[in-house]
Specification:
This protein has 279 residues and is mainly beta. Helices cover 5% and strands 62% of the residues. The chain has 2 domains: 1-127, Sandwich (lipopolysaccharide transport protein A fold), CATH 2.60.450; 168-279, lipopolysaccharide transport protein A fold, CATH 2.60.450.
């Protein structure tokens, strides 16, 4: 079964926009009025087992290999569901959107995978969950064992549970990774800052860095590591309380714990096959 309608949708950010646009428009196609105006952009909703408007439970449901298409954006899932409420003014509004089972959200540049997606319309928060949640872009891959969240109003994405960001020969891993977005000069949303918490591990082609917390400045290419910091290159190792790792040049700097007793930088260097220690 297929439904097609032309509606305009307020633009959100990244995946949140894709998820909201397709499903909200599919509900509009069933005849609900959410005051979104008119648009020439078509919305198509397909489902093998039918599309239902359950007025008693205030729910819209598309079941069986469901997919919603708007331009170059497609949302796939075994089931698409929208929950709405009636307003005192006589209108209606959606407050929650769900997609479950083999979830995939695809555009020409990004694809997200999960077992379930939930969009909180009131707070503009999208949460993708599953055993292995993935977000693929043209240059990076984000992986998490628990969930990936997108907070549209804060322009922030959060990956939780053994989270990783893979890019070329670089690998950032931590229990929680937070990415902050901003608009560039062309008006495109780009990541400008990344924060990593707990069991932080950064690997490049030349070295590995370990710490409790890390902050990565995308423009400068510098990752600042704090806590119990270790940097390992071949058989050489540096230890301290703070380090700066330049992901572009490969140059690392280790700093002492200035406010702690005995807070010197420690290093172990392998010279000519012999191990020497320097404090």
């Amino acid at each position: 079964m297929m439904v097609k309608m032309r509606r305009s949708i307020t633009k959100l950010g990244l995946i949140a926009f894709l998820f909201l646009a397709t499903i909200l428009s599919s509900v509009n196609a069933q005849g609900l009025n959410f005051g979104n105006g008119d648009s020439d952009e078509p919305i198509e909703v397909y489902a093998d087992n039918g599309i239902e408007w359950q007025q008693e439970t205030l729910t819209f449901l598309a079941k069986g290999n469901a997919r919603a298409i708007r331009g170059e954006v497609t949302v796939y899932g075994d089931e698409l569901r929208a929950f709405y409420r009636e307003l005192s003014s006589g209108g209606t509004e959606i407050w929650r959107l769900d997609v479950t089972g083999n979830v995939r959200i695809a555009t020409p540049g990004e694809t997200a995978y999960g077992d379930k997606g939930v969009y909180d319309v009131d707070n503009a928060i999208l949460v993708l969950t599953g055993k292995k949640v993935r977000l693929l872009t043209l240059t990076e891959e984000v992986i998490a064992d628990q969930q990936i969240e997108y907070w549209e109003r804060k322009q922030m994405a959060v990956a939780r549970g053994n989270a990783q960001i893979l890019s070329d020969d670089k690998n950032l891993r931590a229990e929680v990774i937070v990415a902050y977005f901003k608009n560039d000069r062309a008006g495109k949303s780009v990541v400008h800052r990344v924060e990593a918490f707990d069991n932080v591990n950064i690997k490049t082609a030349k070295e590995e860095a370990i710490s409790d917390r890390g902050v990565y400045n995308v423009e400068s290419g510098i990752a600042t590591l704090t806590g119990s910091v270790k940097i390992v290159q071949d058989q050489n190792k540096l230890e301290g309380c703070r380090a700066e790792v330049n992901m572009n040049s490969g140059i690392s700097k280790m700093f002492s714990c200035a406010n702690n007793a005995g807070g010197q930088v420690g290093g172990v260097f392998n010279l000519s096959g012999k191990t020497k220690k320097k404090n």
